[in-house]
Design goal:
homodimer; alpha/beta; TIM Barrel; 15% strand; eight-stranded parallel beta barrel
């Protein structure tokens, strides 16, 4: 027996942040703006546009304000920015009218958190504790993402209880949504099913729980189905299968938005997203980058049932 | 609730046939032999080595006899050859001592069958009817694969009842195993779960039922999990994600053996296959072909839990 599936899921596009920050060559601001404007007209209702990260750490996103000022996002599409720490939030707040959501994050493993942001997990959480009330006061939605939720490339196994302990702290801090990142693609469908089953049972009534899978070992969509079967209704993905993680080097892309949408629609799960429009956007970013992307549906095209 | 999974599955490697026949440049025979010998030492117990197809149709496999004579396959590893028709079987039979299994096939859609082998399905089945008793008499195992079982790139939907009708005829013809090919990657996990659930209920006591998925739209492993959840214990895959189909042009690769093995082992499902050894073989074929392959684990490496 296949478990019953949700009828509808929501997809947040993270390519303009997670994808663009991982390109070795910085994408010109005008190209970013054109690509984001295209994504914003695909039916996707939430887009992570950029990050207020230090320009010397991630120069690829040093044009955050120019991107936010340049894009033309239709009503009903929520603009999100990633905030790495309190200073990032201080820099973002003067531009409050340019976005509706912020994302904050920490890792579930000390080593990854240290290599990623040079803090302990407790230090990251203290930063989030300080930052979230200010964001809520400013009327912003807050998603908190827990990186390496399913495994750490440095430490190996990550105890789900440790992750759930962080979830509790993030909820107490005021987060309205908690995302679980399989940052380096270590998760498998059995693990994901058990993890999301438990997470939804414990926290599903309090916050939106979001799945963020990478396709590092080709299992990204299999993991998405496992999360879906467990009741997850919120997914993050990246057009063209762009993305990765600053550490370790070589961490590969998010699941491709177009592959996820194609699969979900074929399964009878609605997303509100127009697949051909996403494919157009993926084609456009492939042209900008001038290289083949990891996306499959971009090459094969949608399924045609005749 | 996640359905209980089989503890163990078998994997048949089809790269030397399905993969090599789809390479635009014919792979030198000596390279094929070296790659097959490597695959035969990975723990994989069944390998499709080549096809007795007409050299003018698929010149990439015109060295079938030389490959069969050249390989050095350990005891316990079954050598299989694909047989397109009675004439192919006539050509293969004199080399009977060089293989233990044959594969025969037809499509579930008339248009695909016509474009692939220039016959109606009934003509293909009549050929199989004539051929299988001779193969059984010669002591060969017979697998019959039904291409386009989950959808046809020309006709669209394929009625499962039509596929199951073909299964019945193949069983009656003497086939000991029936494979279902998602030849152009149109299947989705919901469809696969329903299909394999029904197929196993109807035919699981009579024959081995095998899943053959392509990763055309990135859903290959998700479909494999769906089949596994439905009780399927036999899978075909191709090292390096090689493969495709002669028609239509551009049909992309099988699921990668190394991605499938990595996922199954991570899920706690045993295969008897040594993942590092398969990765070595995939690396070797990538070197021979001189191009990046679709395989993910080949790039990322196995999951390391520290």
């Amino acid at each position: 027996m296949t478990p019953a599936l949700p009828n509808t899921v929501q997809i947040r596009e993270v390519g303009p942040r997670d994808g663009f920050q991982n390109e070795p060559e910085t994408i010109p601001t005008a190209d970013k703006i054109a690509l984001i404007d295209r994504l914003a007209r695909t039916g996707i209702k939430r887009i992570e546009l950029t990050s207020f990260v230090r320009a010397d750490v991630i120069p690829q996103l040093s044009d955050a304000v120019a991107v936010l000022e340049g894009v033309d996002i239709p009503d009903g599409v929520s603009r999100s920015v990633l905030i790495p720490n309190e200073r990032g939030f201080d820099n973002a707040l003067p531009h409050r009218e340019l976005f509706e959501e912020i994302g904050v994050f920490c890792s579930a493993s000390e080593t990854h958190n240290h290599k990623n942001v040079n803090r302990t997990i407790d230090e990251s959480l203290a930063g989030i504790d300080a930052l979230v009330p200010r964001a809520l006061e400013a009327g912003l939605e807050v998603e908190a993402v827990i990186a390496t939720s399913f495994g750490c490339p440095y430490e190996g196994h990550v105890d789900p209880e440790k992750v759930f302990g962080i979830v509790r702290r993030l909820i107490d801090a005021g987060a309205r949504e908690v995302g679980f990142g399989d940052t380096t693609g270590m998760a498998n469908p059995v693990q994901v099913a058990a993890f999301f089953g438990e997470a939804i049972a414990r926290f599903g009534d309090e916050v939106l729980l979001t799945a963020h899978f990478h396709n590092t070992r080709g299992q990204g969509l299999a993991n998405a189905v496992a999360a879906l079967q467990a009741g997850c209704t919120s997914f993050e993905s990246s057009f063209g299968e762009l993305g990765g993680c600053p550490v370790p080097a070589g961490a590969t892309g998010n699941i491709a938005t177009e592959d996820l949408v194609s699969m979900l629609h074929e399964m009878g799960v609605q997303t509100g997203v127009d697949l051909p429009a996403v494919l157009d956007a993926a084609r456009a970013v492939a042209e900008v980058l001038g290289r083949p992307l990891g996306s499959h549906t971009l090459v094969a095209g949608p399924v045609v049932w005749g």
